[in-house]
Each structure stands twice: as structure tokens, then as C-alpha cells.
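Purpose: get a first structural picture of the assembly so the mutagenesis plan has something to point at.
Setup: two entries, given in the order below. No constraints added.
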Amino acid sequence: MIKSHESIRNLLQLAPGTAVTARGWVKTRRDSKGVHFIQINDGSCLKDLQVVMEADRAPADLIAKVTTGACIRVEGEMVESPGKGQAVELRGHSLELLGAAPPESYPLQKKKHTLETLREFGHFRARSNTFGAVFRVRNALAFAVHKFFQERGFLYVHTPILTTSDAEGAGAMFQVTTLDLSNPPRLPTTGAIDYSQDFFGKPAYLTVSGQLEAEIFALAFSNVYTFGPTFRAENSNTPRHLAEFWMIEPEMAFCDLTGNMELAEEFLKYLITYVMDHCAADLEFFQQRYEPDLLATLEHVASSDFVRLPYTEAVKILSQASRQWEFPVAWGNDLQSEHERYLTEETFRKPVIVTDYPKQIKAFYMRLNEDGKTVRAMDVLAPGIGEIIGGSQREEREEVLVARIRELGLKEEDYWWYLDLRRYGGVEHSGFGLGFERMMMYVTGMKNIRDVIPFPRTPGHADF
RNA sequence: UCCUCAGUAGCUCAAUGGUAGAGCAUUCGGCUGUUAACCGAAGGGUUGUAGGUUCGAGUCCUACCUGAGGAGCCA
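Result (C-alpha cells, whole complex):
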């Protein structure tokens, strides 16, 4: 194991003269008369360590195997570097090849690859500069999520991944079964599949949201959050959708939509600030390679107030805009991508929180406003990303909730425990869901969600 | 799922319907405290697949496969 102080990140901080051992994977090797330059990286930071091997300290047949992708160990001494590009370098005394990477077949070269090509080598792409930076930022961002909530006394709750409630309306679900699919048991009367013989005695699925369970905990622990995998079986082929993604869902009792929005804004700013403070080198890399305005945008978002815009106002702005919409703007229609883009990228140029949507385009559990037409919903729309957060104040009035369930043709008995929460000790409460990978896209400037998750699952793709 | 675009050497890309090329990578040789090192040479291709038009197809047409972008769905 590489101890923390042995990481390349730390070796690069050492004073010249320190004896060290370095281990890592070779990025590139350059040979000169009597001396070899080997750049290695161990993932601890973006920067490589330059190892300098005098030819008489490493036999030629060994050096020949030190190729891009190979894993080596070098013992030697940190010295001041006479060359440009690094303050210190490792003067190697001995070199050991831990794992060769035959160049005839190793798929990665030292020159650049497209992100699409790297995606095909999911088992090697983490060794590239880009994905090294992506996953260091992902690690920091995940830590920041917990830090934010823990500092505020939120309880981290693990909501179930397997669920038998199939009516949350958040999207198509993956069914989970232990039945023999080639010959499932059937009911003699109707011929329908007999799920009483399935593992859970009824149809089961992978979760599409932990929200309903989080509400149970919020009405016991006041402030809670979930952070876990979520699954959607939609046939979505876009740079913004995954079949398996991670979602953060805070849920707060004694909290209305205003408090909900305040938390969402504070949360996003906290995450951005944390990553800027802790991943500066990686963010600079993204700015240089992928998104020239990245740092300015992040600083702008972290320091300016988000726009609060009621849906009705948004419709007004859009209908007065001097442009042709592919999809008509009318009160009652959901906002389309082109509309969201216009609001975030042209009208306001920063995140916009749209609130109080018509009830018919939102979920049954959102609290009905006094006007009887809109609900206390909020979507946080981010420039370039679209919807990054969706949330609402929940309907805590039993009779109103029951009416909404019936209105939508849902079955009351499926929600017996959800309604019980209103019948016994119910109180106003609110929450939202943040797509973790969408946040990753926002802070890194990466344009495809498949490149900010270690192993993307999309229709037709579940390799590695 | 629909629409659009793309698919040529291991990788990144060229090639008015007329002999498939370059850079990098690989192999060999040279030079050099190098910085995606540099210089020279060599090997490397059924142009995604299957049909079709044509004297002749990487190029035009059809279908399919794969990828990307846009849309829908959403986080």
C-alpha cells in the first residue's frame, strides 16, 4: 500500500535531498543519451512525477519495458529539477518493473484520445488525465455533500434500493424477480404471472427515488438526507441521462418551500465552493481543456443570488421573448429544454429556481396552493445542464392528499403508510432531489454525464 | 423511441466517382537533461455490415449495426 506521505502528491512537495520510494503507472518515457525520463502518476494528483534514470542504473532491456501504462517502483532521491515543467524530480537509484503493459496491445497511447474511445476502455480510462481529475473531483464532491449535511445536524438515512411500491410516478422501473422467466408460474384463472410466488410475494423493482421513505424519517428525525444509487429504466439516450445514477435527497420537517429553496441554494453554493477550495488544479485542467469559462462561472454562481421565478412569471417572460419556439409557450404546458435554456442562459445567466407549477404537470404529493391550480414545486435550472434539482413542499393535509390520489386514479391502499404519516403527527415538510452526476457536470464542465460516473449504465451498455 | 450527423491503419484525422494517405503509436537505426522530445526507415487497411447503381464506389442509393448530437422522459 502507498502510505499517504509516499503519494506523488506529497513527493512533489518534498525538499530536495529526501530519499523516497515512488510507485505509479507510466504516462510517457523520453530517452536521452545516457539518461531516461519517465513520467509516472499514481492518481493522487493531476501532476506526474518525473523520474530520471541514469542509463547505468537501469539495464536497456528493463527500460524497454517501461512503456505507457506499465507499473513501476523507483527508489531514489528527490532533487531540484534543472528542466522546465517541474520544481523537483526523482533521481532514481533503482528501478523495478511491477507490471508491464506490452505496447503492441495496450489500447491507450500517450497522445490524446476522444472521450468516446476512452469510454470503450472503461477499465483503463481512470488512468488518463481527464478521468483522474473527474474522479478526484467526484470524491471531493461526495465528501462535501456529507460534510454539508452533517455540519447542519441532518441524519443520513439509507433508503431501500429494492422496493415494491411501483406508483411513485418518477419514471419507468427495473423489475427485480427470482421467477424463472422462461416459465413463470401463472394464475390458473387469468393466466397472469403469479407474483405471490416471487421472492417478495409481489412485483418488486429497483428504486426510482428514496423520497417517500425519507419522509418517514423526516417525520421522526426532523432533518434527514439520502445519498445513494437510483435507477430509471427509461430508454433515454442523451448526454444528461443514466439508467443508474446517484441522487441526494434531503427532507426537512417544519419546512416550507421557501426554506426548501434556501437550503437548495446554500447547498449548491457550498458544494461549488468546496470543490474550488479543494480541487483547484483539477478545475484548472477542466477549464483549460473543456470549458474555458468554468472558473468564472463557478465563482459567479457561488457569489450571486439565484433567481426565484414563479412558473406563471416564467411563462410571461417566455411568451414575450422575441423568438420562435419549437414548442408553444402556454400556461399549463411544461417548460421544454429550449425554454429552460432561454431562462438560464439568456435571460438571467445563472441558476433559476422556477416555483409553483400547474398541478397537472407535477407529482401527486406536492402541496396544493390556495389558488387550487398550482403546487408548491420548485425546479432549480442550471445553465448548460437544465434541471439539476427538483423538489417541493409535500402535501401534509390528509384530505387534500387523498383527493389528489383519487383525482389521478391512483389507489389509496397503495399509499396507506404514506397517508398514515399525515394522520398521525403530520406537519409541513419539504425536500428536493439533486442529481449527483448533473452536479458533477456542472462543476467539471464535462458535457456528457457518461464521463462523470465511474461505470456508466445506459440503454445497451452495462460493461465493466 | 423519433430526428440529424458520423463510421477509413492501434489512436487522431485526410482523400473533385478514377492507384487509399499523414501525424502519433509499434519495430529498427540515429541524435539529444528530455517535457505529447526530435530525425530517418519499415511494417500495418476486405474504408462498420449486406445489397444496389456505375466501365469504375471510401465517395452515390437502400437496409441494418455502432457512436455522437438534438427531442421526449427526467435528476
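Chain A has a mean pLDDT of 92.
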